[in-house]
Amino acid sequence: MLGINALLLIYVSTLFHCGTTLACQLPDSISMVCSLLYFAWIIFDNLDGKQARRTQASTPLGLIYDHQSDALEITVMATFFGIISLFGNSPYTIAIWTTAAIHCYFENWEALYTNSYSMSSNKYLFVGMLALIYTALGSEFFINTMVFQTELRMLVFYGFCSWVSIEVLIRIFNVLMKSSNKMEAFMNLGSLFYIIFCVVVVLVFSPVGLAYAGTREFVLFLGFIFAREMGFLQLAHVSNSEYEPLNIPNYILLSLLMFNTSCHAWGFPLLDEYNLLCFLLLFAGLSYLHFIYSVTKEITKELNIPILTNLQRKIQSV
Predict the structure, then answer these.
(1) Looking at residue 287, what is its pLDDT?
(2) How far out from the chain centre does Cα 34 lie?
(3) What's the pTM value of the predicted model, to 2 decimals?
(4) Is residue 314 situated within a structural domain?
(5) Domain of 230, in residue numbers
(6) Is residue 47 part of a domain?
(7) Most buried pick, 23, 230, 268, 305, via CB within 10 A?
(8) How many domains does the chain have?
(9) Is the pLDDT of residue 223 over 90?
(10) Which long-range contacts (C-beta less than 8 Å, at least 24 apart) are formed by 154-162?
(11) Is 166 helix (H, G, I), strand (E, B) or coil?
């Protein structure tokens, strides 16, 4: 919980100083504080993992919350890097989120179908160091420094995408070599591809350019969708049950956004694109919170940990 609070402080800090836009420049002091908060999250996350392995006291609920923290970290840091890299309200910020989400999904996908974790914990240290370097040298340094006639920030972006591509290929190879359910594993990648498809549709067909007009809102919307999907992936892993990709609320929310965007592109506008995005964002957040509540309630009931039961009794007594 301390780690999640650190991530929330980072997001709230960027929201307080920049509002809904990402086209702003954070004060150096705020950028430094956010970078240090990210390192605090890394420390808390590693301590939690090492403690669980040392005591062998890992619980299904703990595993789900741990990986939910990883899923939320993607949205927070994609927003933060969109600001400090001065990509701002642009498709590049959305591309940062998408690339990081692909990496996170394939990590957990491999774990589900090979029953072995090969998480690259060094990635978090790399992200934290990159945030500190951006803060220390300044965003303008990465824009004005040209290497092979290319901005340094673009080389960093291309390097990040290349590294994720290599990692994904390695994890696909591991599943091919170790999994006994190869066909099921690859069929269940449909949920990730549907999210990516939604991103492509909005980037290509949105007449008002949601990638520019509502970058923060779109990334947050995708973040709630992705975190919920990751929750179902982890739930299947810890309960040894079948993973059902693209749960109904996620499918409906993504489809509504794509349908409205397509109607605008075809010349049949139904609802204002930005207003609909904000409306769907609200429902995506509520859907995610409902998932967290439901999973917590079911697992604590199964493990005879009456946390929510006692809470409900206290509320009723009041």
Answers:
(1) 92
(2) 17
(3) 0.88
(4) no
(5) 2-304
(6) yes
(7) 230
(8) 1
(9) yes
(10) 156/85, 156/130, 157/85, 157/92, 157/95, 157/96, 160/96, 160/99, 161/95, 161/99
(11) helix
